[in-house]
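Exercise 7. Predict the structure of hydroxymethylglutaryl-CoA lyase from Simiduia aestuariiviva.
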Amino acid sequence: MNNTVKIVEVGPRDGLQNEAQPIDSAHKIALVNALSDAGLQVVEAGSFVNPKWVPQMAGSEAVFEGIARKAGVSYAALTPNLKGYERAIAVGASEVAIFAAASEAFSQKNINCSISESIERFAPIMDAARAAEIPVRGYVSCIAGCPYEGDIQPAKVAEVAKQLYDAGCYEISLGDTIGTGTPASIEAVITACAAVVPIEKLALHAHDTYGQALANIYRAIQLGVRVFDSSVAGLGGCPYAKGASGNVATEDLVYMLNGLGLDHGVDLHKLAQAGRDICAVLGRDSQSKVARALAAKCQ
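Solution. The predicted structure, encoded as tokens:
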């Protein structure tokens, strides 16, 4: 078994884009720098979408231009189309990410096209990235459940994952977008996907809406997955479940990995401080149980 885990920190993008509180570029830059200083090797620093649709991601150019880049750290950007890709590359994004859904209804509601059409739309990005030797990561949303369709069949997730992998994505992140997955349903999804995509190319993006994220990650570890997405301080909510928590907190993930003896390269105390700092800016409490426990211990 491989004892090294890669953590993809999505707080500055997937976390902040779901926060109601606006945040300026200087604080986003400070957050990205603090996360790289804590040892995170992949930080999703922004999203090059139309700010009309995602206001919190306005100013992503300024973030990429202002961060203090560390050797060995990949600064990733979400790019929904070729224009977004070009904007991201112009400011030095290390890699880009594209996204599709395992739910037809979610795809139509989210990006106004079918799953197959969404993957076709990414062809120009894949061509440009291939020519420039820019790595592309693929996200699959709604792997366990959809707010419109309900339960999603693992075979459908595997079909979309394979399409993204065959298109050239170096890694496929399986997203439990509404957090309804349990260890059993996540196992079924991973098993189906691993039959068509090498398991070392799969990642799990767990949301904690129903408190299952760490249990789901642990099951994925047992199955051989070694890449996990998480968000410092549990930043972000779930827009499809009012008041629900969103991404699993990176601090909680790191604490569990420490207990399992798995290598990840992240300093938990520096990470927790980064979480405290951004929560102070947002005027909210951390959603990380570990961060809260560490803070109480220091009082």
